[in-house]
Amino acid sequence: MNTHASAASATEVVQQGLDKRYGAESRFKLYGILGISIAMVFLFILMFSILSTGIPAFSKSKILLPFYMDPEVINVEDLADPAAARKINLRKIVNDSKAAFFGATERADKRQLEEVVSTLAQLEVLEHIRANPEDVGQTVELWVTADDEAGRWYKGEVDETLPENRRPLNDQQIEWLKRLTAEERVKTTFNDTFFQGGDSRNPEQAGILAALKGSFLTLIVTLGLSFPIGVAAAVYLEEFAPKNRFTDLVEVNINNLAAVPSIIFGLLGLAVFLNIFGMPRSAPVVGGLVLTLMTLPTIIISSRAALRAVPPSIKDAALGLGASPMQTVFHHVVPLALPGMLTGTIIGLAQALGETAPLLMIGMVAFIVDVPQGFTDASSVLPVQIYLWSDSAERAFVEKTSGGIIVLLMFLIAMNAMAVLLRKKFERRW
After folding, report:
1. Which end of the chain has fewer CB atoms surrounding its CB within 10 Å, N or C?
2. What is the edge-to-edge ordering of all strands in the sheet holding 186-190?
3. pLDDT category, 287, cuts 50, 70, 90?
4. What are phi and psi of 354, to 5 degrees?
5. Where are the domains of the chain?
6. pTM confidence score
């Protein structure tokens, strides 16, 4: 009886232990599912906020207005000369034409029309005259870009129930916009200006082309320097460097540099590249040098991990067949480790693409209108451009900010997808 009782007692204890273990596993799974669910909810909220705010940035409103091409203002002979064409008083043509259309006679009413028609209309009128010089002296109806506040109203972003002094558009301006709608003189088109222009004080004229090209030039410099230097350093430290206190110190410092705040690298670039070497401010070459310093630790660490992942049997076989240590490393080990190196490099570049703080320190926060043509031209980058727009008081820059974030996220997703594809394509299973 005692034997049976003790066996039953032991079985009960074991069962209780199993129940506790299974219960703990169930709770752990529940916590994991709960954590993932919370993360997905916040991710959905974030993406919904960015997309709902940023998608309107990819469209713009255009209005159809008659313009009198005054021959007293426009000299046809000046159209062939860009310098002379810029001196044509296009502002007078646009202002007189829109005042005549809306019946604005008072000075205050004419000023209110500035919130209806964008100043970009002057360039659009100039382009039409250049393409059609025979229209000088005639009244021509043209589709011109609406002002940012008018565009916001057409997109339904202006609350008419608010008091007039709390709205960006007064009652008179809204009546003008309603008249344009009633006469079918309004259309919504793709905002090509957003992808073809540089920065501007006017939201409807602001674009990301200059920032995109600046980011591209900066990443070229970063890739051209960081990849060969990082791979060479990793190969030397992993395969050829003697194991002593000095190399241990170097390894520790590399690991520490990977955790240094990025703004420190910006301060280093400011002190060395700008103050000591006198390199141009706001230039992609300086930005690329700073981002190279920031990404080198990541590339070195990932490259060394890729080299360690190569089976020692590969090296032993190469050495056994008479290959030198140099041949073994560069003909066998490095090609097999290259996918991991490329993955680490792309991840490092993706991190560099989203950096703002180090580039602010070297002057890439400047107001850049012109698209950079070279590595030494003044430029901005996409994260800095987004930062500048987010700090603007103009309400219309909110959608520009979100639109820039969408473009930046697309680039980051593409670069991370490229890293995954490269690993899957070239990775060897042992």
Report:
1. N
2. 139-145, 59-68, 186-190
3. very high
4. -90, 5
5. 2-55, 59-198, 209-426
6. 0.83
